Amino acid sequence: MRPSNPAPEPAGVREFEAAARERLDPVHYDYFAGGAGDEITLRANESAFGRLALLPRVLRGVEKPELGITLPGGSASMPVLVAPTAFHCLADPEGERATARAAATTETIMIVSLASTVAVEDVAAAAPGARLWFQLFVQPDMAFTETLVRRAEAAGCGALVVTVDAPVFGTRGRDERNGFHDLPGGLRCENMRDGDRIRPIVFSPAISWDHIARLTEITSLPIVLKGVLHPSDARTALDHGVSALIVSNHGGRQLDTVPATVDVLPEIAAAVGGAAPVLLDGGVRRGTDVLKALALGASAVAVGRPVVWGLGADGERGAVRVLELLRAEVEEALALCGVASVHDLEPGMVRRLRRPW
Ligand code: FNR
């Protein structure tokens, strides 16, 4: 007799996406999966990694590759962070609490979204020892923005991630078609509490470098600028006291037809010239993607949807599994490339293919 088959364990991030899709409300799946416009950038983020090949070295005597990294806002056991994504309670009832516990278990940094469905204080309380950073959309009311900064500080967040690629909201066709404009019953953006009322998150079309300068004045937390694609902006960021940058196009959810992040990374890394860590997010689905980004100048990457897929497929356990899978893949790829440490990757290990596989 054949043994009864337990549900197969997903063997990669893309399989976790399929498992999450089975379980999630299709409207919520679309919210997580979708991108802006024709989703050209959304697809490009992933496919750009497919146009890069790794060139391994042999006989380097690598016994156990070193994965740990240190960033201005804290250290992590691997160069894979949790990118800020909204509304985790749509993926699992425990929401951001479960994600934070998964980040604590895997000893990596979770960037808590301003649009989280659990307040940052409650995320911190649910996961003692979690390494949290707080993501901010600067709110037009600067006094309220400052309140948010104080709350992030009090909750123990190690850095403030200021997202700058969303002066206005990018329209996502899937949400328009599905009529997905409000959170379902009982769920709210819990960070937007202001006394007795809940404010809506608003975007700030007038956001400028002055706001970044102001933020550096009001907090001693390192400021990480998320959403930089132009080398000149990277240089200006350094002039404004920014501690690190995240090369990001918001996972293809804001301006469509901007380049894939890994395609602009080398230019940004060159512009920054080692003066501050450069991180990347967008389309990272395998450990080999992580190696390519690090070889091309990133100090770490962040993953958005992959963690949501873990959460949607199997709650906290699924989020842990996704992060541990990525860790194992990074470790294996380093060993197979003959590289002893994530700090030793360099551009010569990556070849750009004229045609994708
Ligand atoms: C996001 N992203 C995002 N970014 C941010 O700064 N604040 C936010 O609240 C959100 N919310 C959000 C929701 C969902 C469902 C997604 C998919 C993304 C963007 C996110 O931080 C990151 O830039 C991308 O997710 C990276 O791309 P991948 O890893 O999803 O391909």
TrEMBL record:
Keywords: Flavoprotein, FMN, Oxidoreductase. PROSITE patterns: FMN_HYDROXY_ACID_DH_1 (PS00557), FMN_HYDROXY_ACID_DH_2 (PS51349). The active site is at H250. InterPro entries: Aldolase_TIM, Alpha-hydoxy_acid_DH_FMN, FMN-dep_DH, FMN_HAD, FMN_hydac_DH_AS. FMN binds at residues 84-86, 113, 135, 163, 226, 248, 281-285, 304-305. Gene3D superfamilies: Aldolase class I. One of its GO terms (molecular function) is oxidoreductase activity. Its cofactor is FMN. GO terms for cellular component: cytoplasm. Glyoxylate binds at Y31, R172, H250, R253. Residues 5-355 form the FMN hydroxy acid dehydrogenase domain. Belongs to the FMN-dependent alpha-hydroxy acid dehydrogenase family. This is Alpha-hydroxy-acid oxidizing protein. It comes from Actinomadura soli.
